[in-house]
TrEMBL record:
Protein name according to UniProt: SRPBCC family protein
């Protein structure tokens, strides 16, 4: 299993960060420009990654003010999970960790690990801008 992660410290309470992340409708704002055909509900998101694949994700687990775990709701090119893990540093500061775990063979790892790291870094950077 390949693990890719990125994190940031946000100047918002863990409750505010969790409230934003728990609704998948908000995740479109975290995506890079090569994502299109976005459609979502609070619990599921579908989109296309330019020149790659269509992906449908659903919430697999929510732990209030701690974590949100997303998994494919349809067949994906490889097994993966996307997790947001939140840690309250103070009443007004939260550490957000974004972790992508993907079951990649050696060839897929060479092709996909760079774009997946860019995705993780982009989502964390966007969350810092949007939530603070």
């Amino acid at each position: 299993m390949t693990t890719i992660q990125s994190n940031a410290t946000l100047n918002k309470s863990v409750e505010e960060v969790y409230a934003f992340l728990t609704d998948l409708n908000n995740h479109e704002q975290l995506m890079p420009e090569n994502i299109y055909n976005w459609s979502s509900t609070a619990d599921e998101a579908r989109f296309t990654i330019q020149n790659m694949a269509k992906l449908a994700l659903k919430v697999n687990q929510r732990v209030a003010n701690e974590s949100i775990v997303l998994i494919p709701s349809e067949k994906a090119p490889f097994d993966l999970s996307l997790s947001w893990k939140l840690t309250a540093l103070s009443a007004t500061q939260t550490k957000a960790d974004f972790v992508i775990e993907a079951d990649l063979n050696m060839m897929m790892k060479m092709l996909a690990s760079g774009p997946l790291q860019k995705l993780a870094d982009h989502q964390v950077a966007q969350l810092s801008i949007l939530v603070g």
